[in-house]
Design goal:
- It is built from twelve helices and 14 strands.
- The protein is an alpha/beta fold and 359 residues long.
- The strands form three sheets. It has a six-stranded antiparallel sheet. It has a six-stranded parallel sheet with strand order 7-6-11-10-9-8. A two-stranded antiparallel sheet has the order 2-4.
- Helix 3 runs antiparallel to helix 4, helix 7 packs across helix 8 and helix 8 runs parallel beside helix 9.
- The two termini are 45 Å apart.
Length: 359
């Protein structure tokens, strides 16, 4: 079997800056089946009412996913209106974050997908915002792709960037924000090369100069020892050191960062930046800052990727201009002065599949 080259484009890549929405989503295959039943009934009854659906959550959070929702509706030829808070804007409990206005059969099948897009992306963005706020002016990089299914890794990184992260580790996720991916080398390269300095020198020889010379320590020797060896071997080409001490060795501590910083300064290398990763959370970021540890950047993985989805609810509030609501909810459009209308350019109907569950 030939070795795949991940630098080559996929067979059917999404255009740059757009989301890859799988065909089974577009066809309604990932919808709760009762929406298909509903479409069957409405078609048979020749009903397609003009409706207003409002989407809200019962908790605070950072809205993310509305750009993907907009793309989904656009690709399915939606002719109505989409109103929402801005991507990255905070929403309050029970505040309408999204409002969809239009013929129900043009969007009803996609309620499951829309809520899911908002639930996951908003959770990741909210978790990222917590880490970014804890870090203050120190940049946070999303390292969470390994904690989610690859089908959603790009969206997760995009959401982390919406939440305020300065970078993300996957090329696909970074590209959704017009950025290049962040990251240099894994432990596997050091283990294969057999020595941190040897791995760093090979990296320096072969990887494009636009990629920062940030070298991972902690793989084979003491972090301070490896850091000083790297500073001597690479000289001014060494830009940063990433410390990723495993939990089996106590993880990265503020004292370790302070010691490495002090000894690099004494060795005449105050220019080398220190990047910390490995089990980093907003609480741990706060601890590093409170201890005065001179961290120049944090890599955060599971604290972002493992965020609990935001529980969004979609309610039909109007049917053909008539206010409606299920019991316990208020009928009609709820006051939502912060909503903005998103531009939607419908896809020509000739491009839709004849049997698509859209109408």
């Amino acid at each position: 079997m030939s070795e795949a080259d991940p630098s080559q484009p996929a067979e059917h890549p999404a255009p740059s800056g757009t989301f890859r929405i799988p065909q089974e989503v577009l066809d309604g295959g990932t919808a709760d089946v009762y929406f298909r039943h509903t479409m069957q009934v409405l078609r048979a009854e020749q009903l397609n009412p003009w409706t207003v659906m409002e989407i809200f959550a019962r908790e605070r959070g950072v809205l993310c996913g509305i750009r993907e929702v907009s793309q989904l509706l656009r690709e399915r030829g939606f002719t109505g209106e989409l109103w929402a808070l801005d991507e990255g804007e905070e929403f309050r409990p029970k505040e309408t974050a999204v409002r969809i206005i239009g013929p129900y059969r043009e969007y009803g099948t996609y309620e499951t997908a829309i809520l899911g897009m908002l639930a996951s992306a908003s959770a990741w963005a909210t978790a990222a915002r917590a880490c970014v706020e804890a870090a203050g002016t120190i940049p946070v990089i999303s390292f969470g792709a390994r904690h989610v299914h690859p089908n959603v890794a790009a969206v997760m990184d995009y959401a982390a960037l919406i939440g305020g992260c300065a970078g993300a580790s996957t090329p696909a996720g970074a590209a959704l924000r017009g950025l290049s991916a962040s990251g240099t080398m894994p432990h596997s390269l050091v283990l294969i090369m057999g020595d941190t300095v040897r791995a760093a020198e090979a990296f320096d020889r072969h990887v494009d100069q636009s990629v920062p010379r940030t070298v991972l320590v902690d793989t084979l020797r003491d972090e301070v020892e490896e850091g000083l060896r790297l500073a001597q071997a690479l000289g001014p080409r060494l830009q940063a050191i990433r410390i990723d001490t495993p939990s089996e060795r106590g993880g990265v501590t503020p004292d370790l960062v302070i010691e490495l910083r002090t000894k690099l300064d004494l060795a005449g290398r105050p220019d080398v930046r220190l990047f910390v990763s490995g089990g980093i959370t907003s609480e741990r970021i706060a601890q590093f800052r409170q201890a005065g540890a001179p961290v120049d950047g944090f890599g955060v993985g599971s604290a972002i990727a493992g965020a609990r989805p935001v529980d969004f609810t979609g309610d039909v509030r109007e049917v053909d201009g008539r206010p409606v609501a299920k019991r316990g909810r208020l009928p009609g459009r709820q006051p939502s002065p912060r909503l903005r209308r998103l531009p939607l350019v419908a896809v020509p109907s000739s491009s839709l599949q004849p049997d698509a569950p859209l109408t």
